[in-house]
């Protein structure tokens, strides 16, 4: 090994230490650092290093660790201080695992997720914080700040934001493109990422699987042009798993992996998460790219320098005596302090959606409580949660409050069935499917003459026909093993591929069983074994489904005998809405919906608890059930926290961070990312939601009054101070979340209905009155002016709105902002980029070239883009358009004024295009009547035509 170098001296400036180490590395050694699993360099004393420890709401995939509420649950606290404390605890546990096993416990943590919850059908909804960019940015900054620690030199962990950019759908995620008009990009998507980076809380970013405007997000010019300009430190960019190969395999953006990998490095990707923990292919491709001249050593050095800076900032090359986290050991993992923090986080995350006065509960020791529902006595892990060290369920949390074991009665509310082989199945006909009753289970057979516990299956309905079947004899779930045999061996549904889900499909007079993961049907072998091997229902073995016990009737009977019924429903985080799979709608699973109705009918003194990763459309329950609470999956202490809220030991004060819609019909297409045009999220939605953004009730009335502004006017670079008084007029202590919104009254463009500008969570004793202060910078009211490609504060009056939610405004005032008036778009001043439109129909945003630039492509005849208020001056004589199309041939647009259908035609452009969408041809047309300020429409003659720009010339 070489003598220790200057890179090991903590007294040298960081840049000098990195430069010293860089100078000692060979080119081959540097290339080997560009994979997720960085190779050691023994001669320099450099150990192995890997990026990527999942730390979304606790540490995942490392073994038991403290499990906090899901990210959407943490966000529902609206408490940045608490969220930072959770991040701090997770960072400590990451250091603890690293101390225990450095090879597994990596310090580059992949959290938080800052993708905006634009659409509640997103399969990964529970991973994000909010549909609002400000709230997301504040909470992401808090969590990342906790993860990174507060030491001025050494990072506790290196937080990595996920997933850049415009990523909010799962189905076909690696091949779908998110259309990002400039305003949506600048006002909505980028701010959520910018806040934690500009604050210095996050030090890395993961690129997303999808394409943005037709270009893979991993190749986005925004990595260099925007993201890295937000920080004084070098921001590391890591790829998502297998995404580097997707650039060729799934997205077909480059012809081979060598050119694709080279383009990724040039675009700013530093670390390749590809081919698992085997870096050989990545190294070979990058080495070949260097040999071909597609990459330079300077390109490699730029990426390696950023990666090494990260490792230095984590203290890797510092001596133990100068390391502030050297004494953090595995003793911190799930320590009592973290368990207590998990309770606090779960309490504060619970949202009271509806309450007619039933809550808080007032029960005597003689009263009986029915706790029913498929989520009443279980806690589920999600893909990115840690392994639960213990589980306090709703049933357990409530039972702990009573002396008598009979005070809390439980019913799961699921049907119990037996499967009898239908006639025509050979020697197995008439026999019952039976399971191995041993603790770990075994293959199923069709061999019993009569039904008994070893043939009983509990049926869990997760919606859309997706069922999980649990064997009564050993409590394990049916799964399909590597030999395609059905076995009762799984402790729970789970894994990247969930093998524990089935569908019962009617087939004439019998029923067949379909295995979802393999899309195969169950057939019985001659030896009586059940295997998922049939390609169709016609080839499957038929069964008669015999009902052993009706779960809903049983739950209703238990509820009827109780003084109060608590029914707990929701989702399984790994089924019907998860990574790789979006939800089809917003409905509760049918059996759960029937359960809620039946329990309420049996006992109107009913509390509904929805535990889910996402919103549901529960309109019937909102009209009929007297009290409804919602929580994300709340972690290891959820049952205890819920009991505290139900009985009033803790006043609920969680608030929704996304809109709960009444119907999926209220939502645009899942792939429509233009929230402005589609009236999506609370910012633009003009309907009446089931529960609005920011909604959440409390047990104590709170009054808002005396709203005052430090000034009724403000300059574009000024700030106004806002204050109001908030009073708890009730007899209970409570937390309150005071929310500040603004609404711009007039504008050149479509503005939000209202927009969150600040919030405060505060604790109020009974009768306490306090003054809440906000600062509102006029610069924060800016929007993106597409006519001049910059942010602008417009001259306008703004409503200042303060209340308990976006729809429950208690105080209002008016602020006049002395901004600028946006002039008409001057056609003769330069090129008009097609993507800088004001309106459109029948087009999609696309890439104008592999590396940078946007354009628009028509998807139907008569498609158009509009440029409002275009100033042609005294007259424009000629227009040139840059056009292309996929195949060779003519491509044309018609230029109209005022209306795309029957407005006056001022010119028609036809270009003789060469094959290839990037082969733009400039073609011109004389103009007639293009004078003054008019709305300009470019109308496409046919689908498949791409327009990059328009330019106008005066004269004759």
UniProtKB/TrEMBL annotation:
Keywords: Hydrolase, Signal. PROSITE patterns: CBM6 (PS51175). GO terms for molecular function: alpha-L-arabinofuranosidase activity; beta-glucosidase activity; carbohydrate binding; xylan 1,4-beta-xylosidase activity. Residues 830-953 form the CBM6 domain. SMART domains: CBD_IV, Fn3_like. It holds the Pfam family Fn3-like. One of its GO terms (biological process) is xylan catabolic process. Belongs to the glycosyl hydrolase 3 family. PANTHER family: BETA-D-XYLOSIDASE 5-RELATED, SUGAR HYDROLASE-RELATED. Catalyzes the hydrolysis of a non-reducing terminal alpha-L-arabinopyranosidic linkage in ginsenoside Rb2 (alpha-L-arabinopyranosyl-(1->6)-alpha-D-glucopyranosyl) to release alpha-D-glucopyranosyl (Rd). It is not able to hydrolyze alpha-L-arabinofuranosyl-(1->6)-alpha-D-glucopyranosyl (Rc). This is Exo-alpha-(1->6)-L-arabinopyranosidase. It comes from Rugosimonospora africana.
């Amino acid at each position: 090994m070489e003598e220790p170098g200057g890179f090991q001296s903590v007294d040298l400036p960081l840049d000098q230490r990195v430069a010293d180490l860089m100078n000692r590395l060979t080119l081959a050694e540097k290339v080997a650092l560009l994979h997720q699993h960085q190779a050691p360099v023994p001669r320099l004393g450099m150990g192995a290093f890997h990026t990527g420890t999942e730390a979304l709401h606790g540490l995942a995939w490392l073994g038991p660790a403290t499990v906090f509420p899901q990210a959407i649950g943490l966000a529902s606290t609206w408490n940045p201080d608490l969220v930072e404390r959770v991040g701090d605890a997770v960072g400590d546990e990451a250091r603890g695992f690293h101390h225990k096993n450095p090879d597994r416990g990596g310090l580059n943590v992949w959290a938080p997720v800052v993708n905006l919850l634009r659409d509640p059908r997103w399969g990964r909804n529970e991973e994000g914080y909010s549909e609002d960019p400000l709230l997301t940015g504040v909470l992401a900054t808090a969590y990342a700040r906790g993860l990174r620690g507060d030491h001025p030199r050494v990072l506790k962990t290196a937080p990595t934001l996920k997933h850049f950019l415009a990523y909010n759908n799962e189905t076909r995620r690696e091949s779908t493109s998110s259309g990002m008009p400039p305003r949506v990009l600048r006002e909505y998507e980028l701010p959520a990422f910018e806040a934690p980076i500009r604050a210095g809380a996050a030090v890395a970013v993961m690129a997303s699987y999808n394409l943005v405007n037709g270009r893979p997000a991993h190749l986005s010019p925004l990595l260099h042009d925007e993201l890295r300009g937000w920080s004084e430190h070098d921001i590391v960019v890591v790829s998502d798993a297998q995404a580097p190969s997707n650039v060729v395999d799934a997205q077909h953006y480059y012809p081979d992996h060598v050119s694709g990998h080279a383009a990724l490095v040039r675009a700013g990707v530093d670390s390749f998460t590809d081919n698992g923990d085997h870096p050989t292919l990545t190294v070979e491709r990058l080495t070949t790219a260097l040999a071909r001249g597609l990459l330079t050593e300077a390109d490699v050095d730029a990426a390696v320098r950023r990666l090494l800076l990260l490792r230095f900032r984590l203290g890797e090359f510092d001596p133990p005596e100068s390391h502030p986290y050297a004494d953090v050991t595995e003793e911190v993992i799930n320590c009592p302090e973290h368990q207590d923090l998990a309770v606090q986080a779960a309490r504060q995350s619970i949202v009271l959606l509806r309450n007619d006065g039933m809550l808080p509960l007032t029960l005597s020791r003689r009263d009986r409580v029915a706790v029913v529902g498929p989520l009443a006595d279980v806690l589920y892990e999600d893909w990115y949660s840690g392994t639960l060290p213990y589980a306090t369920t709703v049933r357990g949390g409530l039972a702990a409050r009573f002396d008598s074991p009979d005070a809390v009665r439980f019913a799961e509310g699921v049907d119990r069935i037996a499967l009898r082989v239908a006639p025509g199945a050979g020697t197995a006909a008439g026999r019952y499917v039976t399971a191995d009753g041993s603790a770990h289970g075994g293959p199923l057979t069709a061999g019993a003459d009569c039904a008994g516990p070893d043939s009983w299956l509990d049926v869990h309905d997760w919606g859309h026909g997706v069922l999980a079947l649990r064997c009564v004899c050993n409590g394990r779930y049916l799964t399909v093993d590597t030999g395609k045999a059905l076995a009762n061996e799984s402790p729970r549904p789970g894994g990247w591929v969930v093998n524990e889900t089935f569908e019962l499909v009617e087939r004439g007079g019998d029923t067949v069983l379909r295995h979802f993961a393999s899309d195969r049907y169950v057939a019985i072998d001659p030896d009586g074994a059940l295997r998922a091997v049939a390609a169709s229902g016609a080839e499957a073995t038929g069964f008669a489904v015999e009902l052993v016990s009706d779960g809903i009737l049983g739950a209703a009977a238990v509820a009827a005998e109780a003084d109060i019924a608590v029914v707990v429903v929701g989702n399984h985080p790994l089924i019907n809405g998860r990574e790789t799979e979006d939800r089809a709608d917003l409905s509760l699973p049918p059996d759960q919906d029937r359960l809620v109705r039946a329990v309420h009918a049996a006992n109107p003194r009913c509390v509904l608890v929805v535990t889910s990763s996402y919103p549901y459309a529960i309109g019937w329950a909102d009209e009929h059930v007297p009290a409804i609470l919602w929580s994300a999956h709340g972690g290891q202490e959820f049952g205890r926290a819920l009991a505290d809220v139900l009985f009033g030991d803790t006043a609920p004060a969680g608030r929704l961070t996304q809109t709960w819609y009444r119907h999926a019909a209220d939502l645009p297409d899942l792939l429509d990312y233009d929230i402005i045009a589609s009236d999506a999220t609370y910012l633009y939605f003009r309907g009446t939601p089931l529960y609005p953004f920011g909604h959440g009730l409390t047990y104590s009335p709170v009054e808002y009054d005396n709203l005052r502004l430090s000034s009724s006017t403000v300059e574009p670079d000024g700030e106004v101070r806002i204050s109001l008084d908030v009073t708890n007029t009730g007899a209970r202590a409570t937390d309150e979340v005071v929310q500040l919104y603004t609404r711009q009254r007039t504008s050149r463009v479509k503005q939000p209905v209202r927009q969150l500008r600040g919030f405060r969570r505060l604790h109020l004793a009974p009768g306490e009155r306090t003054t809440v202060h906000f600062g509102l910078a006029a610069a924060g009211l800016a929007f993106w002016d597409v006519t001049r490609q910059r942010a602008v504060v417009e001259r306008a009056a703004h409503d200042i709105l303060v209340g308990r939610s976006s729809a429950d405004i208690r105080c209002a005032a008016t602020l006049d902002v002395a901004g600028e008036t946006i002039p008409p778009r001057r056609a003769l001043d330069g090129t008009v980029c097609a993507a800088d439109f004001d309106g459109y129909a029948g087009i999609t945003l696309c890439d104008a070239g592999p590396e940078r630039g946007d354009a628009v492509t028509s998807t139907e005849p008569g498609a158009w883009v509009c440029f409002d208020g275009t100033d042609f001056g005294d007259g424009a004589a000629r227009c040139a358009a840059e056009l292309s199309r996929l195949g060779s041939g003519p491509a044309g647009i018609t230029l109209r004024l005022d209306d795309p259908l029957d407005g006056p035609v001022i010119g028609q452009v036809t270009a003789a295009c060469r094959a290839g969408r990037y082969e733009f041809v400039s073609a011109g047309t004389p103009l007639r009547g293009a004078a003054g300020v008019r709305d300009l429409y470019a109308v496409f003659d046919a689908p498949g035509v791409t327009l990059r720009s328009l330019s106008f010339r005066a004269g004759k």
